[in-house]
């Protein structure tokens, strides 16, 4: 860690982004309330883009041409760091709603702003809440919204790709919607779970070819999960592979 960058982030980047976060949250609430969730989405996009740029993180996006803007997808990525959220919001060339953990909805202003953007939350400790969340996800997808999820369910502690849960793939089979696999590289070096400072490291977002359901039963859910995980794994740098 270069001392100058450490001074920069604590004296400039963090204070500036605190102010920007408040401003973007208020803008999302106002725009989302007055003009609808799509208007709120654009403030979230600006927020994510500014977070990466303010911390001087180089960003490379591959596979922008893979997605059809007229098609709804279930976007599935690996989860290395909280910076995954900023990277995908700011640089994913496609609008989507988040399925995010309920703890984030309790952050003052940010939680309400996320609601105004149409993002949905899930309490992973409550089976009843999970069922309710999946019902809301169904409704979003039926209205031609794309939904982004981290299939591992939580951030990795090692940087390595973990096992995928079935929720995203169950939705894909039920709605007969394609999965859009996404590989996230570099955010683990930037800010792994538990770290209180940012390290400067190049970020790479790899968008893969969509994977379409080929059936409607439980075996198809497992096939989609396995094929999607293989795609995400293929786009990871060597240090993040098993």
Task: Give the gist of this structure.
By secondary structure, this protein is an alpha/beta fold. It has helices at 3-35, 37-54, 83-91, 110-116, 127-142, 167-175, 187-190, 218-234; strands spanning 59-62, 74-77, 97-101, 120-122, 147-150, 179-185, 203-207.
Describe, in plain words, how this protein is organized in 3D.
- The chain is an alpha/beta fold and 242 residues long.
- It has a single domain, classed as 3-Layer(aba) Sandwich (Glycerol-3-phosphate (1)-acyltransferase), CATH 3.40.1130.
- The chain has 8 helices and 7 strands.
- It has a 7-stranded mixed sheet with strand order 1-7-6-2-5-3-4, sandwiched between helices.
- The two termini are 27 Å apart.
- The model has no long low-confidence stretch (mean pLDDT 90).
Biggest sheet, open or closed, and with what strands and sense? 7 strands, mixed
Beta-strand residue fraction: 5-15%
CATH superfamily label: Glycerol-3-phosphate (1)-acyltransferase
How large, in whole angstroms, is the Cα Rg?
17 Å
CATH fold name: Glycerol-3-phosphate (1)-acyltransferase
Q: How many distinct domains?
A: 1
Q: Quick one: CATH class?
A: Alpha Beta
Class from secondary-structure proportions: alpha/beta
Overall shape: it is: globular
Strand order of the largest sheet: 1-7-6-2-5-3-4
Low-confidence parts lasting 5 or more residues at pLDDT below 50? Answer: none
Reconstruct the topology from this structure.
Elements: H1 3-35, H2 37-54, E1 59-62, E2 74-77, H3 83-91, E3 97-101, H4 110-116, E4 120-122, H5 127-142, E5 147-150, H6 167-175, E6 179-185, H7 187-190, E7 203-207, H8 218-234
Parallel strand pairs: 1-7, 2-5, 2-6, 3-4, 3-5
Antiparallel strand pairs: 6-7
Helix pairs in contact: 1-2, 1-4, 2-3, 6-8
